[in-house]
Amino acid sequence: MSNSASAKRAPRANPDATSWHQPVLRDEVVALLRPAPGRIFLDGTLGGGGHAEALLTAGARVVGLDRDRESLEHAARRLASFGDRFTTVQANFADAPEVPRVMDAAPFDGALLDLGVSSHQLDTPDRGFSFRHDGPLDMRMDSTGGEPAALLVNSADEAELVRLFREYGEEPQARRVARAIVAERERLPFTRTGQLAALIEKVLGRRGRVHPATRVFQALRIAVNDEIGSLRRALVSIPPLLKAGARFVVITFHSLEDRAVKTFFRAGSEQWLDRPEWPAPRPNPEWRFRDLTRKPLSAVPGETGRNPRSRSARLRSVEILPATQEVAA
Length: 329
Description:
329 residues, Rossmann fold, DNA polymerase, domain 1, 2 domains, 14% strand, disordered N terminus
């Protein structure tokens, strides 16, 4: 990666190249969702279509959502042979109940969210997600709307940058990095990933294999795409679209996501609530799930060897209880 803002831009990756997202924990997802002819699933993070392909191959129908137009176009080409059993929609998974084609297909036999950025997005310099290749400082999953990371980096005050780097990146040197960014942008606004990565490396130094810009880039990506907010909205909005007995599977890649999923699933999986000051346990008004993964599933060594990005994956899943079924209107 070049350290210069004027470095020559790397060529854009071929949309059909091997950089497309490899489906993480595919066998575990299939085992939990139990695809079969006559069953229909919501894939809220279609990406390269790997998980959807596994469900379709088993005879199921799939409605696939993604914010990224390139991902939808690639998946549509890849899975065209499945005909009308496969439908794509450009949308944020948190907005699923507002998508007519989703509501027409509901209720579903299961739903999947495979969170975070795809391998193709990371490997495409023009998308600006990675510090490994110099590219425009963008990071938008939907490149047709919203504000790029460069605007956030160049306009947010120091206190806001500190908050983002700490909250979303868990960066212990958040204040040093934010202060350096604010000072540098007065001289030259940030427009390239290489420019920002070089500054962070200059401020923090380079130790070990992990690039010092990793946490900051994660924080900016999460902020630009409102990833935590979208996840929290989806955890509430997707279960009502599922049938009784359906499974909801979520794959996370960092502690902020996993903590949100764990907290939500466990809050809805306890039939009774108890407190030391109460004379007896009380019914949980939020009880609507059966927790299928009290401990999250992770990739086995064989998969992590083939796909290093699977090392941080954590899968959690619940089943919708019959008594709490909410049939989509």
